[in-house]
Amino acid sequence: MKNFKTFAIALFLAVGTLSATAQNKAIDTKKSSIKWVGKKLTGSHSGTVSFKSGTLAFKGGKLNGGTFTVDMTSIAVTDLEAGKGKEKLEGHLKNDDFFATDKFGTAKLDIKTVQAKANGVYGVTADLTIKGKTAPVSFDLTVAKNTATTKFNIDRTKFDVKYGSKSFFEGLGDNVINDEFEVEVALVF
């Protein structure tokens, strides 16, 4: 009986220690945001897309993982007004030329490795899946209290988004669209 009590106390302490050191924090999808900027030779467009869900994983108070799902059907253009091209561009971004949101309604990012760089700054490598295609992305993520922020570029052609790309089409002239687009992410958890 004495050994059983000792084992039970040790197990309780071990579980308590594990739960204190490993913690998943769900993001607030309403307060978190993704802003994007796509550039072309003759200008740029900007907009937003919303999170469907997301979790950051911490161990011992330090970031060690995470996974996020983005609602691709929420793509919105913010630099154009309604009736002045906004709806047309949003429709084009959602069709097969770009993100095919009727077939691929979500995108996903899974953090694979995390390297502490400085106080609250982590070098992150993740698998990003868009249109059913997965490719690695790397970025710095700054974590402070209940927020995390990053800004990085995504090469859309790695995800079969080739419309207007000079890497795949010749003779586009002024209609070339940059292969990379920029995302700025603000997480609240």
TrEMBL record:
Keywords for this protein: Signal
Residues in Lipid/polyisoprenoid-binding YceI-like domain copies: 24-188
Range of residues in the leader sequence: 1-22
One Pfam family, short name: YceI
InterPro entries with a match to the protein in the record: Lipid/polyisoprenoid-bd_YceI (IPR007372), TTHA0802/YceI-like_sf (IPR036761)
Record's protein name: YceI family protein
